[in-house]
Amino acid sequence: MVAGAVERRPGWVLVLVVLGIAALVGLRRRVHVARAARRAAAALDEAAREAAEELDTDLIPRQRPAVVEVDPCYESLTPEEFEEAIAALCERDGCSGVEVVGGAGDLGADVVAVTPDGRRVVIQCKQYGEANRVGSQDLQRFGGTCFTVHEADVAVLVTTSDFTAPAVEYADQCGIVCVDGEKLRNWTDGTGPCPWEALPER
């Protein structure tokens, strides 16, 4: 029957044979293409997974350091940097509305903030060397404005050095918190209380 068909219509048979061969070649090519596509898809999936992992890593918020990153030697900072460092400590320990307001005409307030329990804290910063202690005159000037002008609920004088005995006595009478160099270091490294947690007894 096939031989008869070849004799009667050789052109059609040739066309059918060519089409059959082309179909086989096409089928093999499709198989190869499908395999290549599967390999490419797997590679893309792997690349997408790795990219997603990298993205997840980048999107993890960086935690703020437990200790403010400032020069451990406060004395080496400029007065402005020292005020910024004290403001950063307040912010680290939960204060809101932290502002550095020191400068000409500040009337004794260098940093103002609101403590976590809602009290207004006013801080004066005295960046002195070890030999230069904060005297009673410094406290009296600050005491004259911190409560009446700045409406402080908590008034704090922070220094890198120390206080004279009359200064401490005046501060105790007025309810001003004195933070000397040692207390400042303790506040910084978290081993001591925040100034607004250490109010003097009045």
From TrEMBL:
Record field: transmembrane: 12-29
Secretion signal, residue range per the UniProt entry: none
Keywords from the named record: Endonuclease, Hydrolase, Membrane, Nuclease, Transmembrane, Transmembrane helix
InterPro entries on file: Restrct_endonuc-II-like (IPR011335), Restrct_endonuc_IV_Mrr (IPR007560), tRNA_endonuc-like_dom_sf (IPR011856), Type_IV_Methyl-Rstrct_Enzyme (IPR052906)
Domain Restriction endonuclease type IV Mrr: 76-187
SUPFAM superfamilies for the chain: Restriction endonuclease-like
Glycoprotein is among the record's keywords: no
GO molecular function terms attached to this record: endonuclease activity
Entry-linked PANTHER family: MRR RESTRICTION SYSTEM PROTEIN (PTHR30015), SLL1429 PROTEIN (PTHR30015:SF6)
Protein name in UniProt: Restriction endonuclease
